[in-house]
# Entry
Amino acid sequence: MHDKPQGPRLPDGVDDQEYRRIRGLMRASVLNVWRGRHQVIAGLDPWDIVDEAWSAMAESDFSSKGPFVAHAVVVARNKAVDAVRRVEARRADRSIDARSRADVEGGGPESLHETLAGSRGADVDYFRGLDELAAIQRLALAEEAIYTAEVLTRVEREVFIAVRVDGKSRAAVGRELAPPLTGQRVGQIVAHALIKVQAYVTEREQTMTSAKTSDRSG
# Structure
């Protein structure tokens, strides 16, 4: 699945560059819901969920009660919850409309119909949408630091992903490295990597805030 479908329908005021940015935040929102559920969501593509969320918003003419990007992040989150619920429903042979563990832990909608764009589950309270957007923006920056930016060394990236993303034990990760490392040493690497990721996120947030301030003053 490409991260950008061909010929997408866009809301007013959203150009191609902003569309890519919003989709990246929506993907981060999906992955945030799926965090720690590797067995449940195995084989699912987060971009498929982003496409589903975008199509749902297009069907409602991209209407939202607050900033569109905050709305898009919430819709993507709800669609990710819906995807987890569908898988869990098939495994447990229960109603797809019942609340799942993903709902309870992630603050998801009360029932399936609320995941649709334009429903109460998608058009949540204005400030809640902004708060969620801010959290997802930080998550996207952290993902950028871990996977694409030249922030971590190869070993730091490998160890950090194994421990903090995949949930492996430090001892197991240490045994898989060449040369092998102790669990304690792996823990030190993870802690150092986390400091570097957090510093990158803080620096990028400050840079973006400064840019916005300059735009307003100009």
About this structure: The chain has two domains: 1-148, 153-218.
